[in-house]
Amino acid sequence: MRILVTGGGGFLGTHVVERLRSEGEDPFVARRRDYDLTVATDAERMFADARPELVLHLAAEVGGIGANRDNPGRYWYANLAMGANVIEQSRLHGVEKLVVLGTICAYPKFAPVPFHEDDLWNGYPEETNAPYGVAKKALLVGLQSYREQYGLNGVFLLPVNLYGPRDNFDLRTSHVIPALIRKMVEAQERGEREIVLWGDGSPTREFLYVDDCAEGIVLAARRYDGAEPVNLGTGQEIAIRELAELAAELTGYDGEIVWDTTKPNGQPRRQLDVSRARELFGFEARTPLHEGLERTVAWYRASRSEPAVL
């Protein structure tokens, strides 16, 4: 099967491509440097080059709370435009199946915990990441509309917060786990006795190891053909304060953690109901958080010791 992976050079994309190759596939890997998917002609050129039968749309512009707060317009536009262009080109090229990744940020701020897919429309997302979440949710409407009118087999997945090797560790745009690891490793190396984290540490989050997410995406591509959105996660939440303590243990950081309560907490709680993925295509996350964090810390340390490629 000819498979196109958008965002194939990114954090999640590289793991999905690796998994597909391990199963004997040779996917067409679309990278941002080659195709700007916010531009319709670039999306058209990508489809002409790839001639796909299956499309996995993983490309996104995304970041943590700070990045979302600084780029609300860009994140809304870029994610909506990329998704709309990919959906339309999938229709025009007669793609057999299209898998689009949504985001847990699409859920209402005060959705009942655990978040069930049926609650997706029962409220407005948390304000700091609402533009990103709303843009992604609009793609679900697009997929369902194209299924109804054109017969496009579009599947929509809602992954929880991801982490793992090759994550984005840039403190300006990173999510919480890579930011914690980098801050603690660097503070330890410099002999600094204090790091500052945003909020008060009370919100909870759920985290999915990137290789597990890649497995879920491939399973859905193989086994699921429904119109309803499906969560991908572990079903287990952890408070950010507890997560910080675990990260300190694994990085060896023994200094003080200071909470800057002038900064936003984000959504109060995040935990998914993951029963639909298990029932519909047999996905269950396998990597415990402690084990996944150990691997991520080890990868980050190793990546920093490698010589730069000139």
How would you portray this structure in words?
44% of the residues lie in helices and 15% in strands. The protein has 10 helices and 12 strands. It has a 6-stranded parallel sheet, with helices on both faces. A two-stranded parallel sheet has the order 6-9. The protein has a two-stranded parallel sheet with strand order 7-12. The radius of gyration is 19 Å and the shape is globular. The two termini are 36 Å apart.
Number-wise, the strands total 12
Strand order of the largest sheet: 2-1-3-4-5-10
Helix content: 40-55%
State the distance separating the first and last CA atoms.
Answer: 36 Å
The backbone outline, from C-alpha atoms, is globular
Q: How much beta, percentage-wise?
A: 5-15%
* Helix segment tally: 10
- Unreliable sequence segments: none
User: Structural class of the helices, strands and pairings?
Assistant: alpha/beta
Q: What is the quaternary state of this protein?
A: single chain
Radius of gyration: 19 Å
Question: Major beta sheet, specifics?
Answer: 6 strands, parallel
In short:
The protein has 310 residues and is of the alpha/beta class. It has ten helices and twelve strands.
